[in-house]
Amino acid sequence: MKYVVSLYLLLCSIPLHAGITEPDCTQLLSWAAQHDQKQQWQVTPRYQFPGISRDEVLMPLFGESVTRWSMEDFRNLSQWMRTCRQQFLQDGDPAAARTLATASGAMMRLTGYVQQFDRSRGEAEQAVAGLLAAPESQGRAAAIELAQQALRGTNIRRELRNVPREFMRPLMGLTNIHGLLPQRDIEALQAQLGSGGGVAGTSADRVPGRADVEAQKDAQSRAVASQSPDRRATPPPTTTEQPEPSAPAESRVVASQSLDVPDISQIELLPPPLQGGADVTQTRLVGVRLGMPLEAAIEAVQQAGFRLKDKGGSLHKLGVYQYWLDFAELEKGETVPFPGTMTPAESRAYQTRLGIQSVQSGKVSLVAYEGRVGRISVSASTFDGPDAVKAYVLERLGEPHTLEGYPDVRWYMVWHQDRDKQTIDDTQLRIEAKQTQYTDLVRNLNVPYTRISYSAWLCGTLPRCME
User: Which residue stretches does the UniProt record annotate as biased composition, category Low complexity (predicted)?
Assistant: First the structure.
């Protein structure tokens, strides 16, 4: 019952949304004219939105922050923009109509993100309500302090092992969704948590970290030793005793090696090689182009640092027609051996090495028809951000026919062989650059990197576009 009351009070503290206000066409045009793809704002710790969606720009016109819009609000905006575009076209002002269309497209691409914000907001409110509904105790106060840290963006995963089990789920939830919460919601949740009952920040209730635990053990050992100052080592017994079993030498060596974790400055990670051509069929991805003999393509990929993993072929059917497709898969990156029994420090190092392994890994898949490559797929990573990857790609291939995404988050680009036939079935090249991260548990930090996917296929002359 206390949990229900806490959730009710939390929800009551958040104002209800009655829907956005409808502006007239002149006001919509004045707002839309401010749209600039280069202007972005940090709506959450993870995402950026177009500048025209800033609260100070949007709220005077529509009466509500875009982070609180409903799907009905987006549908209304789309309808209003469509009506005004038609009005401007009838008035002989196509430039105004295009301005509205561009701004409308930028806003409609936000719907999925705003829905995600709403889900994250509900999960965070539920987690906070669960913490506030718990009986007052030192454990609850310490959990509330950790919740405040999680909302500030602090990585608290290492400290979760020291909190009561009933608080682990809400605290982990707040840690996972912090990057998906707008600042307005983060501040509201922080206000609800308050000071954690007035005792969360005291040293007596602070959640002990690993250093505190080790220090406590050392103090206990010194206390035991001080009670017997003249005690000497016990002489060995006269009977033969069996020594305690120890880990195999090979296991100890592997565990020792697992502690040697490189940092970002020791890892060389570049975008997969890309060479532009006169058209899609001439573009080379890691040295391979569409229509290239399969054996020559495999050799080129191997020269780029990949090793052959699998090679073969299979029979496919298209109606009554049967055709044979050859394939080859190549990869790069080393497998981190499992070291067996590990200390906590070795375990953190091992998990970090697994993260680095995923960053350094790469894959190339080739599909060939009648000995010629008709489909190329490349997956690899770089420490360059998505914007730098986009610049690298555009410098080599020119402007794409399709460009979607957000700065520092994700870019999706498509080039078609025939500009007048831009369908999913024509010969084309697709490139996606998306930011992600791995966690360095040794240094207690998140390391961002960009995952890149190249995909090109030759359609029209090949069965089912090589699928």
Answer: 239-252
Residue holding tokens 């000071």?
A: 195
By percentage, how much of the chain surpasses pLDDT 70? 75
Separation between Cα atoms, residue 237 and residue 228, nearest integer Å: 21
Residue 364 and residue 286 in contact, taking contact as beta carbons nearer than 8 Å: yes
Q: Evaluate whether 396 touches 275 at the Cβ level (below 8 Å).
A: yes
Within 10 angstroms of residue 194's Cβ, the number of other Cβ atoms is: 12
Closest to 453 measured CA to CA, from 364, 403, 379: 379
pLDDT digits (tens, 9 = 90+) for 92-131: 998 999 999 888 888 888 888 888 888 888 889 988 998 8
Task: Kindly indicate the confidence band of residue 398, based on its pLDDT and cuts at 50, 70 and 90.
Answer: confident
The CA-to-CA distance between both ends of the chain, in Å, stands at 56
List phi, psi (to 5°) of 161.
-65, -15
Q: Which of 73, 58, 71 is nearest to 27 (CA)?
A: 58
Euclidean distance between CA atoms 304 and 275, whole angstroms: 13
pTM beyond 0.85, yes or no: no
Here the tokens at position 432 are 């996606």
Report the residue count for the chain: 467
Q: Name the token pair of 151.
A: 């909302």
